[in-house]
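Bug #77: duplicate submission created two jobs. Keeping one. Sequence:
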Amino acid sequence: MAIKARELRFTVVLSPAGELLDENAVRLDVPAEWTPEHLLLAALVRCSLASFRHHAERAGLAVGNTSGSARALVTKRESDERYAVVEVDVELAVAVEPEPEDLAGLLAKAERDCFIGASLTAKPSYRWTVNGRA
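Kept job's structure:
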C-alpha cells in the first residue's frame, strides 16, 4: 500500500497596491529596494535554518541562536542562454547542544531537506559554522 506524500500548499497575493499577503491575509512588509532575488535568498536562508532546527530537535538537541546569509550569481546559462541563478553560496551559523557525534550527517540532512534549496536548479554551496567553529 503506497503512503500518500504530505502536501504543503502556500499562497502569496500581490495586491494592486503592491502589498504582499499570505493565505491568511498576513502582510509582509518588504522595502521597495528588495528584489524578488533578495526574497529568494531570504527564503533559502530561512528554510535551511528551519530544516537544521527540525533535524536537530528530532535528534534531541537544543538549538540556540541561528543566523545566515546567501549570495547568488544570476547570468545567462550556457545550456539555454536564459538568465537564471547559476551559483548560490549559503553561510549559516548555528548553536546546538550537545554537539552531535554525527555533525556532518545532521548538516547533510539540513541541506537535503530544505525544499527551497532542493527546488533550485543551481545546487547551493553551504558553509556551516557550528558553535563558533567552521
